[in-house]
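Hello,

I think I submitted the nicotinamide-adenine-dinucleotide job twice by accident. Can you confirm which output corresponds to this input? Input:
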Amino acid sequence: MERKKVIVTENIAEEGLILLKSELDVDFRDGISREDLLEIIDQYDALIVRSVTKVNEELIKRGTKLKVVGRAGNGVDNIDVDVCTRYGIIVANTPDSNTISAAEQTISLMLSSARNTAWASDVLKSGTWDRSPFRGSELYGKTVGIVGLGRIGSMVATRLNAFNMKVIAYDPYISDERFERYGAERKASLEELIQEADIITVHTPRNEETMHMVNENILSLAKDGVRVVNCARGGIVKEAALLQGLESGKVASAGLDVYEKEPAINNPLFQFSNVVCTPHLGADTFEAQKRVGENIAEQVIKALEGGIVPNVVNLPTLLGEELNYLRPYITLAEKMGNIYYQLAKTAISRVEITYSGPISINETEILTIGFLKGLLEPVLWEKVNYVNARLMAEDRGIKIYESKEEKSTKRYKNLISIKIFNHGNEMEMAGTLSRARDPLLVEINGYETETTLEGYVLIVENEDRPRIIGPFATALGDEGVNIAGMKVARFNKGEKAIMLVNVDNKVEEEVLDRLMKLDGILGRPRLLHF
Ligand code: NAD
Ligand code: MLT
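Support: Only one job matched these inputs. Its output is below.
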């Protein structure tokens, strides 16, 4: 089979490249020009970037084979995730691989700006031994204001608590429990935080809400001599406002790793001796880069094999443990989705999905997406995946309703029940996992069964009377079809019944025609394939 191709447009660790090369054809084109990238992107199944390559509609449109964009790092503000979703492209990042390094870089910027370390080092190296201009401040006993108490913000809090600082934080989107866990006093607003802080450090994503959030108005409320650190994203602290603050002396020092425009050359903030600047080095440690490189390589390989990868940005976030628990249920939901268009050819207007039992307390959105992927696959072939399945279903006018029940009312502990409404008709099914955690259909249109959704399954309606099932099984054998499992079900004795038969191989069309003519068989048997 032809190997898939990936282009890597920025530097990632050798370990990641080695892993990629074991499975894919790799073009490592660190620093490729925009024009060249636009020219050749249509040759690749995957693209791996860091924070410089702009992955926008212009690029995505030309990447006609692209299936996955891997962000070797955390922030995805250089990637238009919505556009990728529209084009069915998976966006994956490595959010946990460089958090320690970014937190340590924050502390380093904080210490070196408070102690004038970089400035003193430059002066000494230029031949002057002088201590007087460099007198700094201790962190001990000071108040640090953390904006954004997520992965990195919370690690910074833990470390600064060890310095005996008072830690206050502003993050409207997280629980009180998280503030307590990281020893941070909750502040209700940025205004409240800035008034109390001796040092402020930002750790939010950069987006419309956070761009320039620390601006002239906010800084005007700060204590005189406030110190500012930004190791998150350029622009969260407005550079023009910081410049003004440094000029007026309101801001005593700044530690910056990120800039509004990167690469940052001749940034006016570089003129200040009390500003410590690094060129976006937060994640640049051997340890983080090894983790990031290997992690993104693993995810891109997995994504190209089809299926779910752990850190997909345009899918609900699942922690490793939850994903492992839900994985067989995702397969179940997908296989249940697969059934409809194999049996019916009518457009769907509405789908109702109920999750019952302990699964319902999990992130069930991923199960719904799995179901929709399975549902649309027979009609949309390659175009549908976990990323765009919901969008594709909604585009086709399918309304999706979900509900949850803490306890299943049926005899199965966990149950996924689905009702599909087409114009005038309805299909109902329910599924669970077998003891071996295989996908099991337990109900279809009111008939109870226990049929494994694997390989080929024949659905046959028959009259409920003697000498129907035996001859049918014999006929299958005569046609060279081996039965792997069989379930029969009925509503009322003597009326219509149903057989669900797992068979080992495909049953050809002409065989189905012959089976239909057997005594007591009602209609043409239908063959499902999973
Ligand atoms: P995260 O998603 O774990 O945490 C972000 C936190 O910000 C969340 O808790 C969120 O609730 C909070 N937040 C969002 N909007 C907010 C607002 N308006 N006000 C206050 N809080 C808000 O992210 P993370 O992994 O901790 O990363 C933080 C930042 O660091 C990101 O911008 C990321 O891109 C950046 N980063 C930089 C480097 C580097 O090399 N300098 C390395 C890694 C990450
Ligand atoms: C990140 O978001 O992970 C950082 O900006 C680090 C990087 O891309 O090198």
